[in-house]
Sequence to fold (424 residues):
Amino acid sequence: MKGDLIVHNAAELVTCSGFSAKSGKAMADLNIIPDGAVVIQDGVITAVGPSNEVMAAVDPKDKTVINAAGKAVLPGLVDSHTHFLFAGHRPEEFLLRLKGASYLEILRQGGGILSTVQATRKATREVLKTMGLQRLDCMLAQGVTTVEGKSGYGLDMETELKQLSVMAELADLHPLDIAVTCMGAHALPEEYRARADDYLDFLCQALLPQVAARGLAEFCDVFCEKGVFSLDQSRRLLLTAKDLGLKPKCHVDEIEPLGGAEMAAEIGAVSADHLLRSSDQGIAALADAGVTAVLLPTSAFCMQKDYARARCMIDRGCAVALATDLNPGSCFSGSIPLLLALAVLNMHMTPAEAVTALTINGAAAIGRADQIGSLDVGKKGDLIILEFPSHVYLPYHTGVNCVETVIKSGCVVYEKWKGVSSAC
Ligand code: NIG
Ligand code: FE
Fold:
């Protein structure tokens, strides 16, 4: 799927220009071109600039031309942390948590992640594929053009490989790009109860080598948490993954402050995620090591926890990304409008910082800042057109989807009121 297309007269062309993560103060700079235009040829951006200059230099013949007068145009959004491929739901756990039950206690008693593991082990590939496609459609309609998806609801060879390979199939079937992460270290499966080191041996000696050899994932992730995987176990797993060519990511300092941010910095993770309870030293270490801090405000909101310290991180010079954490337990929401509202109104990021966090920094969190996440010549022609003239409407029109048109590799793949189409 590769198209030729011109978008011109955009009230603001929010380029987010850059080829690497933006940290600290640079997060506020969106490089906006008023009355801007962008040209995509064969799926790739070939020109970006003021409409009069771009239009004078381009031949519109055989190209789709979109007049974006009165509308803001942004890079396609990058949701850099999800667990979108799962079977079954957990409403009973939601009720328990509303009554005060703790997430880790539910997991310890064999519920939580482990109940989704049971359902996902039973689900056929076809069922997972159908649900996956519906969830991807939903993301696309909110302007997401690239998503990261984790395994971790299998916790055995067969089901982990099933989840990973279904994601590869989905990427072929659907316009969205999917960055795939192996998260075999999401929880300790019942078969290995009280034998965490044996399970780690299985991951390091059997699952990860198989995943790496078959090219089924680009990243490896771990739930580093009290009662799940310790700091040392997480380090061991991620270093093994790194040796196998899988880039490390980690769920750290979410419920208990274990020093996960420091560990992520020490091993050179691509991203450190959650970070609700990270220490000042941990935040400084992430900034100094250039590890992207992926914040998941919807997850904190649903878990009724204090938010990650986004302002402190940005002020200390971190590169912050925002992602949904869509999953059936801690955060059954892939809502981009809710995520943006929480980031701006509750975590006190500016609208500009939030846009950076969901575009170029989201791309950096999955190692793709050189390919997507901004409107720069040479990048993939992924962009979104809003119903409104400025990016500020994204949080300001609170909780409402402002995305009117989604363009993937130069092809219109979603138009509000018309729905999704994967045909170019
Ligand atoms: O990122 N914290 C661990 N993993 C997921 C939740 C998965 C689940 O509850 O099913 C998270 O929040
Ligand atoms: Fe997660």
Observations:
- The chain has a mean pLDDT of 97.
